[in-house]
Sequence to fold (490 residues):
Amino acid sequence: MRILFVTPEAFPLIKTGGLADVSGALPASMKRLGHDIRILIPGYPTVLKKIINSSFLCTLYNIPSIEAVNILIGEMPDTGVPVMAIQSDLLYDRPSGPYGDENGKDWDDNAIRFGILSFVAARLSREDSPMKDWIPDLVHCNDWQTGLVPAYLHFMRHDHPKIKQAKSLFSIHNMAFQGCHTPQWLGPLNLPAKSFQIEGLEYYGQLSFLKAGIFYADGLSTVSPTYSKEIQKKEYGFGLQELLTKRGNEIHGILNGFDTKEWNPATDKYLEYHYNDKKIAGKAKVKNALLAKLGLTIHAKTPLLGVISRLTYQKGLDMLLECAETLIEHHHCQLAILGSGEKSFEQSFQNLAKKFPEQVSTNIEYNEELSHKIMAGSDIFIMPSRFEPCGLNQMYGLRYGTPPVVSNTGGLADSIVDSNEVTIGNDTATGFVMPEINTYQLLAATRRAINSFHDETTWKKIQTNGMRQNLDWSNSAQRYVEMYEEILNK
Ligand code: ADP
Ligand code: GLC
Fold:
């Protein structure tokens, strides 16, 4: 199959979260399965710098609001997956992150920046594309930034029904990010005014890119089986639950895998010491090196709780803040925090570190190397998300012998088996699941984790159960292939 994989971020070119990890690893898996897949991504400066062997491919004209863009083609570092980047200094040559400035404020013209990503993807997915020798069978869209691809394909087919075009799949990685913009953007984006209605792009008076994807795509998926059901309910649907329920039978929930070469404690390039499920002793050395680096006191018997996260409401870390002092003072824990996001969370974690300088290290930054060191050096990983479409960190926790404490939602529910007598007895326990999402349950689940940590035999069992899970992309990539085929045969 020929697949165009459209994404606003892909590791290692550019990353703000799990979508980048997926966009780096899933296409590589598809390539290994023998499919002809290409990534399409905005040409941010870092992307243009990191693509290997890039060269000019073609120019696309008649782009809404701007005359033309150039498309470059090159390869992803390491995996060699072909990647096409849209070169437009006007749209993408900006300092700081892909979505906003250094203070986290979204760029005012994100509607155009990602509308054009979508428009270009649609144009490249039709027989009249200037890239004549490579027309995809299917265009795989990811999150709101690509939500207009299915919409543009729908309108283009309407205007020129005889021209063959690709089918579309829209994958939802997070319903919380909707890409809502004022309807004034309809004109600049060349979107038909009549599409701005309930049966179309309109969402509470706004133009919603996420809704566009969900409404117009030929196929829909999300990143875990549990989340595929949750988003059809009011609590998780962000106002789109009815639309999702209408298409409920079509939504495939496929759990993400991850890049097990990048995330492997036996070979991790960021670690001084290595370990695996058979020889786990090296983990203690990694922990000591981490404690020393972070300036925390070293006590072998003190559990180190790790957090690597966007600091937002979704991730539920306000609950950790509420019980942190109890964990430190009564349960003798240490905490290693890495993350950034809402200022109030950043401040509170910094205050905690000031109050307990030997127990708590707060690092407000995005730091790939430190994320690997904390994942490997911590004993327990804390992830009490209020909702979690899939979540990758809990899976990295499994792989690194750092059993996670998680809430019972989305991909967390689908990837972690709670430890109890039965699951420890039959060697399936991999972590600690909070039955409900509140501070009390977080404290209770973390306490259970700490008790198990102090029981060496049980702990080793839980660690190795997790480390032996097959978490690479092979199974899930095969499921995507089956879904692609289903959409093409519709
Ligand atoms: P989400 O995409 O919702 O943020 P995931 O668990 O799916 O959550 O993926 C988050 C990814 O981003 C993981 O690879 C995680 O290690 C990484 N990450 C999050 N915050 C940081 C940070 N401050 N520094 C380095 N990596 C981070
Ligand atoms: C989103 C979700 C996260 C998921 C990731 C990759 O960022 O918040 O749960 O793992 O996408 O699919």
Summary: The chain has two domains: 2-257+474-488, 282-467. Residues 63 and 162 are 21 Å apart (CA to CA).
